[in-house]
Design brief:
The chain is an all-alpha fold. It is built from three helices and no strands.
Amino acid sequence: MGLLRMAARTAVISGTATAVSGRVARRQAARYDEPQQEYAAPAPAPAAPAAPAQDDQMSKLQDLAQLNKQGVLTDEEFAAAKAKILGI
């Protein structure tokens, strides 16, 4: 009986050690995964700046059109300034 008892005790101790070791390993893995998620690279920003550039061009063109209507700019000056704003 002594040999069977010692084998059973060894099996219980070994099983407990394995369970504890697995639990510690999972906890450490989870701990090391968390900081990587915190410092992940941010998602790239969407290409929204194109809209303000168009709004800026539109406002400049509207200002030029008003100056042309008021007679401050000639038709040639207006056409040249418009081409410059549009990049033509």
